[in-house]
Amino acid sequence: MQSGNHTPEHIVAPTPSAYDYPLLVKQLLVNALAVSANQEITYRGTQRYSYDGLYRRIGQLAHTLTSFGVKAGSTVAVMDWDTHRYLESYFAIPMMGATLFTVNVRISPRQIAYTLNDSGAQVLIVNAEFLPLLEQIWESLTRPPLLIIARDDDAEASIATSLAVACDYEPTIASASPDFVFEDFDERTRAALFYTTGTTGDPKGVSYSHRQIVLHTLATATSLASPREGQRLHREDVYMPITPMFHVLAWGIPYVAVMLGLKIVLPGRYQPDALLRLRQTERVTFSHCVPTILQMLLDGAKRDGQALSGWKMVIGGSALSTSLCRAALAQGIDVFAGYGMSETGPIVALSQFPPGAMPSDEDENVRRRCMAGRPVPMVELRIVDADMRDVPRDGRTQGEIVLRAPFLTLGYHGKPEASERLWASGYLHTQDVAVMEPDGYVRIVDRIKDVIKTGGEWVSSVEIESLINEVPGVQESAVIGVRDETWGERPMALVVRRAGTAVMPLDVRKHLLALASSNRISRYAVPEETRIVFLEEIPKTSVGKIDKKRLREWID
């Protein structure tokens, strides 16, 4: 029986002198500093310092931001490539109790202005490369932030600006004290904010608390480190992110790398030749990227005769096709898919083989690697019908993926109605259509909005794209539904040829018709020859996904 302010007997109450350990971002540094203090972090192979040096610079950045009025509850924005400065910001800003806002530099200037206004950022750390862009939108900012300019070399130092600048990052950091006291606070304090761009309306703000980031880091690390060999991350790995640090905190993996005390290679702007050079000179063994970047790396390595063996790589953002997976395996990359979205932390599933269960059949091996995989620890993943009932685990029955986990975003910034739709019935709705195998492997079929409804059947655009990509001479493809008076919708394929090849629409159609004849796909899934169109390039979103909204607008 509870009386007064006494704690009920079934609740564990700390003794007055106990440290009730909060789940804060600063705790991810504790083990790394204890056991990996001399481990190396390098930016582009030209600047190097240790984990001890990282912690010193985190303190120096915190002192600098404090001198400009940043305190608990403030928001500090960062516009940069994947640099040492970004890694320092990942820690210093949230450790102060402030919010790190990672600005997506690949969206339109108007959208960047919207996100800066919506976030209420008081300070902006900006790479000098982006000053011309910032000048374009400055007058549209309701409360222009104080500017800290980050410069990489003499060429960027020559960039002039009419904007008022508070300071330059490096000299100011260098003169600041490294001894900053990072106090404890509520672990549910907002640590990070970024914006996801949908197909309609303004970008939506997604935020994560310290507690959510720490739990996502632990769950992801547990899953990645659990296999005995292959498809795994361990303390001897050398980590290089190739997913932008502005995009969902680079999938949260920089926090994993720091917690484990790995050598970290930060590549700056993504240029295939530079990435391949760093992989070789810094002996990189673990990365993650979207399929488009992977294709560029494979092409560059093949052109230069560079072997890629010993490189483990998680692919996400959009579907990993079987043809791209085969090409990566052939060049020595231990490649496998991951699944998540901006609202999910993001990683909720990884396509890692269970112990002793790597398929000996090559086709099955590739098929499994390309799936969304199985949930990581602490993730409840269900595939449900329209009435929220679980569909059978038969590898055929389709439903929507819904989720519960301790690190999913709890709502959109300032958008209560969209937040309620996201969390209808107490589960986060992904809008992804999928099937589940008997052993729990999840295969994404399509996005709800991208499924093609034709001739009374639902056709997966993702599946047809993967099959088209198997045609010799095809580099990539996108399949969308177009209006049809007889069938409601019919599939249309937009295809990019590999350089020097002469693949034609008839080649694509014959390939798909052969698959339909063997009952692998429905005949309704095969586009007419006139609806197989070759393009020089397929438009992508700011994070490298195929932009089907733009394709539909172009077709209409």
Attribute tags:
single chain; 556 residues; alpha/beta; Rossmann fold; GMP Synthetase, Chain A, domain 3; 3 domains; five-stranded mixed sheet
Helical fraction: 25-40%
Tell how many strands the DSSP assignment holds.
25
Number of helical runs? 18
Oligomer description: single chain
Question: Can you characterise this structure?
Answer:
Helix content is 30%, strand content 23%. It is α/β, with parallel strands linked by helices. It has 3 domains: 25-207, ANL, N-terminal domain (Rossmann fold, 3-Layer(aba) Sandwich), CATH 3.40.50.12780; 209-374 and 436-443, ANL, N-terminal domain (Rossmann fold, 3-Layer(aba) Sandwich), CATH 3.40.50; 452-555, 2-Layer Sandwich (GMP Synthetase, Chain A, domain 3), CATH 3.30.300.30. A 7-stranded mixed β-sheet has the order 7-6-5-3-4-8-9, sandwiched between helices. Strands 12-13-14-15-16 form a 5-stranded mixed β-sheet, with helices on both faces. Strands 2-1-11-10 form a 4-stranded mixed β-sheet. A hairpin with a 6-residue loop joins strand 14 and strand 15. Helix 4 packs across helix 5 (131-137). The longest helix has 17 residues, at 51-67. The protein is globular, with a radius of gyration of 24 Å. The termini are far apart.
What's the structural blueprint in terms of helices and strands?
Blueprint: H1 30-35, E1 40-43, E2 47-50, H2 51-67, E3 75-79, H3 84-95, E4 99-102, H4 109-119, E5 123-127, H5 131-137, E6 146-150, H6 154-157, E7 167-168, H7 169-175, E8 190-196, E9 204-209, H8 210-225, E10 238-239, H9 248-251, H10 253-260, E11 263-266, H11 272-281, E12 286-289, H12 291-304, E13 311-315, H13 322-330, E14 333-340, E15 347-350, H14 362-369, E16 374-375, E17 380-384, E18 399-404, H15 416-422, E19 428-436, E20 442-447, E21 452-454, E22 457-459, H16 461-468, E23 474-484, E24 488-497, H17 505-517, E25 532-535, H18 548-555
Parallel strand pairs: 1-11, 3-4, 3-5, 4-8, 5-6, 6-7, 10-11, 12-13, 13-14, 24-25
Antiparallel strand pairs: 1-2, 8-9, 14-15, 15-16, 17-18, 18-19, 19-20, 21-22, 23-24
Helix pairs in contact: 2-3, 2-7, 4-5, 8-10, 11-12
